[in-house]
């Protein structure tokens, strides 16, 4: 029988060659002399290979989502642009106009990205319609998670996983039968339920997979710990597992997110707040006495307190720092109702972003009094404070903004916030911003 997915190992090296070919081909426009051409192409190839390995640009698998591919391409493009400009900055005698360099990089990455996503969709189509590039799998153990996995394999043929059988595990002899089935049917990958295997069975199946070059994977269905985004490190030869890896903690990601925040906040402050603030100030002052801006203490990064700014949307009242606004709140002014409905009242928080207290996207900060209560009553609430709070966030665009009406509201908000900080990418921020704008235009029932 032909080996399934027998051409898969060649996809990655071919992708390297094709992408480098594109970069070199478009670089002919610079018209270097022979010596300079050799130096530039050597620099280009070496830089591309090292950057690709560092970022995992070619670490794309059959289960990789399109948003991940796009995020990788954007990150690769930004950093490679800096690398190319560094070359021309160092060899200034061979410098070219910035517009020509940007044109070169723009054409190169457009073609590379189109090829990358075309291959992604072609392979999905190939697996679904022609049954090629597949992996034969079995599942060991019958539990809720294994049944969900089997349904996933059966319902999503575009991923190319063909589940041949689901095994129950009653005794060690059944492990031997599983091994015979795997060899006889040339199974590629074995998926095991951790809750269904005892230590002896676990060691037995690991030994079988190692000795027969089979891919072995486990479903973390018996310990909540294994369902987390764990970080695996070595201290010498001692393996250490830390609870989570936060992508924003990486220096390059921290730089990208802060640069994005500063640029976007400056654009909003200069192009929108510069003229909107005087108009709203007149309207706010005409309707009620008090300050134009409302500031309130919130907890941010590392639980530090800061003043969060808003346009004042309510009449001055002693309960402003104690009670959230509800649907029929009489404290709101007429202009306040409009501002809260359209989320305009939140715009001054771009000053917070520029100062560094907040980010454009992140977990929404709560009033200090509410934060203290939630920290004591809501599991994992404090995890949100590992990163800066945001003007908008994943929880807000997922239906959990505004007033906390039930305990489930704050629990789900925390779940989305933790997912965001563990899976952050610049592309995810952009997606959340566009979703926020869309929700604002359509109207959000919890915006009051």
Describe the 3D structure:
- The protein has 448 residues and is an alpha/beta fold.
- The protein is built from 14 helices and ten strands.
- The protein has three domains: 8-130, no CATH class; 135-227, Rossmann fold (3-Layer(aba) Sandwich), CATH 3.40.50.2300; 251-442, no CATH class.
- Helix 2 (34-55) runs antiparallel to helix 3 (66-90) and helix 3 runs antiparallel to helix 4.
- The radius of gyration is 27 Å and the shape is flat.
- The chain starts with 7 loop residues before the first helix and ends in a 6-residue tail after the last helix.
Largest sheet: 4 strands, parallel
* Count of separate DSSP helical elements: 14
Structural Rg? 27 Å
Indicate the low-confidence ranges by residue numbers: 1-5
Q: Write down the overall mean pLDDT.
A: 83
**Strand content of the residues, in percent?**
5-15%
Provide the number of structural domains: 3
Look at the helices and sheets and give the structural class: alpha/beta
Head-to-tail CA distance between termini: 64 Å
So what's the overall shape? flat
How do the strands line up in the largest sheet? Answer: 2-1-3-4
- How helical, in percent, are the residues? 40-55%
Give the strand tally.
10
Order of helices and strands: HHHHEHEHEHEEEHEEHHEHEHHH
């Amino acid at each position: 029988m032909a080996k399934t997915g027998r051409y898969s190992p060649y996809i990655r090296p071919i992708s390297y060659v094709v992408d480098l070919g594109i970069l070199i081909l478009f670089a002919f426009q610079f018209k270097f002399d022979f010596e300079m051409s050799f130096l530039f192409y050597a620099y280009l190839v070496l830089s591309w290979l090292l950057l690709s390995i560092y970022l995992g640009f070619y670490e794309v698998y059959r289960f990789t989502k399109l948003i991940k591919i796009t995020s990788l391409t954007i990150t690769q493009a930004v950093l490679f642009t800096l690398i190319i400009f560094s070359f021309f900055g160092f060899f200034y005698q061979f410098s070219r106009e910035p517009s020509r360099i940007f044109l070169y990089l723009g054409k190169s990455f457009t073609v590379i990205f189109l090829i990358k996503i075309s291959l992604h969709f072609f392979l999905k189509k190939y697996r679904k319609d022609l049954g090629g590039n597949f992996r034969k799998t079995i599942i060991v153990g019958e539990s809720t998670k294994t049944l969900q996995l089997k349904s996933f394999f059966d319902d999503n043929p575009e991923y190319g996983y063909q589940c041949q059988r689901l095994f129950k595990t009653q005794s060690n002899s059944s492990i031997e039968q599983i091994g015979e089935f795997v060899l006889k049917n040339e199974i590629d990958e074995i998926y095991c339920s951790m809750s269904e295997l005892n230590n002896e069975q676990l060691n037995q199946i690991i030994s079988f997979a190692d000795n027969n070059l089979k891919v072995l994977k486990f479903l973390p269905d018996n310990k909540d710990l294994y369902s987390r985004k764990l970080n695996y490190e070595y201290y010498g030869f001692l393996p250490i597992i830390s609870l989570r890896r936060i992508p924003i903690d990486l220096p390059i990601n921290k730089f990208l997110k802060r640069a994005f925040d500063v640029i976007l906040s400056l654009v909003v402050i200069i192009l929108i707040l510069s003229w909107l603030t005087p108009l709203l100030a007149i309207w706010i002052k005409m309707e009620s006495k008090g300050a134009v801006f409302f500031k309130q203490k919130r907890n941010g990064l590392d639980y530090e307190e800061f003043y969060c700014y808003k346009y004042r949307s309510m009449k001055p009242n002693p309960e402003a720092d104690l009670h959230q606004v509800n649907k029929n709140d009489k404290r709101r002014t007429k202009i306040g109702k409009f501002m809260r409905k359209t989320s305009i009242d939140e715009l001054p928080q771009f000053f917070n972003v520029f100062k560094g207290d907040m980010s454009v996207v992140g977990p929404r900060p709560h009033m200090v009094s509410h934060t203290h209560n939630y920290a004591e009553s809501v599991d994992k609430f404090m995890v949100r404070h590992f990163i800066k709070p945001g003007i908008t966030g994943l929880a807000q665009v997922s239906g959990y903004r505004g007033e906390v009406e039930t305990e489930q509201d704050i629990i789900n908000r925390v779940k989305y916030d933790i997912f965001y900080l563990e899976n952050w990418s610049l592309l995810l921020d952009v997606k959340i911003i566009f979703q926020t704008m869309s929700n604002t235009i359509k109207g959000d029932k919890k915006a009051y």
